Sequence to fold (949 residues):
Amino acid sequence: MARAEQSTTALAGEQFGFGNVERPSLARRLAAIARRNKLGAISFVLAALVLFIGAFSPFLQRYEEERQFQTANPEFNPTASPMEIARNPNLSTPFVLNRFEGVSWDHWLGTDQLGRDIYSRLVVGARLAIIIGIGASLVSVASGTATGLISGYFGGKTDFVLQRVVDGVQAFPGLVLLLLLVQVVEKPSLTLTVAVLGFLGWAASTRIMRSAVLGVSSSGYVEAARSTGATNLRLMTRHILPNVFATMIIIFSISIGLYILAEAGLSFLGLGPADQTTWGKMVNSGRNLIDTHPEESLLSGAAITFAVLVFNLAGDALRDELDPRLRGR
Amino acid sequence: MRQDDNYWLRRPGSRRLGRRRFIAGAASGTAALAGLALVGCGDDDDEKSGETPAPGQTPTPGQTAAASPTGTPAPQRTAGGVARGVFLGALDFDTVDLHRVRANPTLWMSNSVLNKVVRHKNPDTGEIEGDLAESWEPIDAANYVFKIRKDVYWQNTPVTNGRQLTAEDIRWHWQRQKDGKLSDGSAGDFARGSLYKQISKIEVTDQFTIKVTLEKPNATFLDSISGFGATVPNREATEQFGEKAPKTRTEEAMPATGAYTIKQWRADKEVIFQKNPKNFRKGEPLLDGTIVPLLFGDPAAHRIAFEQKQVDSWAAPDNNTTKSVIDAHKGQMREVLTGVANTVYLHLNMNKQFKDVRLVRAVNLAFDRRALIQSLHQGLGQVSGPVTWLQEGYAIPTNDLIQMDGYRVNRDEDNKKARELWSAANGASLGEINVATIQDWLNVYPDTITLIPAMLNKALGVNQFVSRKATYEDVTANLANGTFPNWFAWTSAVGGPDPRQGLRSTYHSTSTTNYQHVNNPELDALLDKAIQETDYKKAIDLVRQIQKILIDNASFGNINAYNYISRGASWNYFHGLLKVEASEGKPGEGYSLFAGHLAPGATWLDTKDATYQGRPSATV
Fold:
């Protein structure tokens, strides 16, 4: 029976005589893809850059992200009256924050209203964005695949019940659900944010994966494996799952940008990870001064846009390559 | 303006008060937790009219206002029009029951709609004048007789039928708060009950005369009943709405006696005030109404609305932003500087996590007040001791304050001491410590949630402090049961220049609003002595002794941080309440202490001013 249960993918290849064809090297294949889909290639490089920045942020950030740069204040007079301070605020404190410093060697992107280095904060924000984007995508795809697989494979009542749950979750406004889930816990931690965002994407992932599983389940090679007595678990894990893997990869890559955006929204509303510097929090922090000192909001907003864009384009490119019907279009 | 005429430059010793004047002039101070309230009124009330005429002497429309300090004739006041303001705290609401309310919005509204028995004529000096009382006689510091005006009528609503206000209304107002009970006999949490529990007897001697006897002499009584939270509500409306549906905002819950009636008071809607034609202060208000949009959790939206003249006055969280807007509209706007009466506090709950006072002292030492003034207010502020610098007569002089724990210029010294105390009291055993930041504050200063824990962790050399957001309701709902969170934000508006009643309410062991359950016999004795003291200098001395004990104990968890100075702007067509008018090149000066009750008689719109052009019309 073990022989009969060879990977159906390999079996299919051999059946059509592809097995003996010499395949080009990975580098050559990538080069060919890059020539075919230039935008996709560029987006992959840029997405890799974002991943690199996120992964190596402790080495790339030049200063501790909450460090407030300040200068000793010779005018400080601790006994100054409030009205004297009203006329000259420099009298009140022994130092003055280096607020809104321009671009310099010390501060590559300047400083914010609290004298913090914007570049270092952006780099730290990238790490959080990557962790949340990839983490939530993993949660969403893993859970969506599991339920989509069960739902699509078993069908019948199981499918009906699971899909009604999915309907229920999808019918609920996503943002409201997000706010609700984050509000019920006292501390919106990084783990919770990842879990909540992942849960939010679970319904859509389930739906897509179910469709993919339905398509594969009725394939001849699955029927063949079933006829040899393969168990349900074996059929799902050995014969169906490998054949919906491309779909998983596409959902995963496209979701990253969406989750980065969702987290930025949550953080902007003050519902993101409480103790971490995130891009959304930076946009919020700078919004009160957006007309006079837009640097912090604009730069963090641009970072969000950039990351979301490159991950979306990369996801699109991946979909194009993995879906034979779209390849080369 | 002479320098020494400026409130902020005057020194404690510069005031001279006789005994009788003192009884009449002392004012209630901040009750740190007792009168917890939201911010917003500080900034907005800055911008309301000038000198308030005595009752019956209100300038009629068209009468010339006082000349500006520079001698330039001020424009003629004109009646009519509808002003639009902003009340930052408007989203935080707790109850329509004025006796139990802690949050600023309801109290702030009540000061435009209702009256007090007596009120502050000048909040910053504590000078008092009659309001519902046409006259009063302090027989001594424990006995007072009030003659109530005969021309005061409740707004005609189904529950009041427009009946006359009598001494019985005042009796009920005091008695209910003294008893601390609702009409069905059940106990309630009365926010200012501590004051009224000092009353031993209330006698209505005739329909318009009421006599009150205190258990012990209280030199601050008149000021206490002049304060922000002393407005007299209607009994029938309170029992029908305040007791049966305290959380439901409705204009019927607050029938007016004063300048305005409430045309609209509903959740999530702008509050609309309409001129009360039956106001006993003839000629007031000058405006036909005021609209208070429930705007602004978003300061940027507030600024845009101001620049588009959708609101008439404004103050940005960042003082430099205000300055830049004023500069961009040179000659069209006035700049106003005002000390914000809502003191910034850090509260640590000594009933729960911080039972060891050494831990509270350590946090007090680690708390870098000047760093926050610099970070959040760009330097515009000054540290405050247990009595704020707004209450300059009683506050510890800055020269002395900077030698004390938490106020030293040398931060290393304070931080070293803080670490020693933290270690000695085994602060590590507390585990994670959440110092919640209030959402209203975060709307304005979003970075606070990381600044406070970072500051405390660094100073104490730990990694225990975190900050999560909370609402004022999370705090107020848990004050009486002692389970309120550790929190940071604005607290009560300072009610007047005399802090004694506030200190007693917050720290006396017998006070119903001593939420930290402080029980210090030495402190009790000083508080009792201070509140009875009619000699100004002796009172100051006693209050300074009290403050010494408080600082030695980090104010038992109610850690005063600072009061900042708000830089506000108003369009030239809008005339609000200013203590000192703006003159060329010099900003105006607002009342630091609550003066909203004076606004109706002095707030007006100059429709002839060039800046009025383009202002969107408003009606009520």
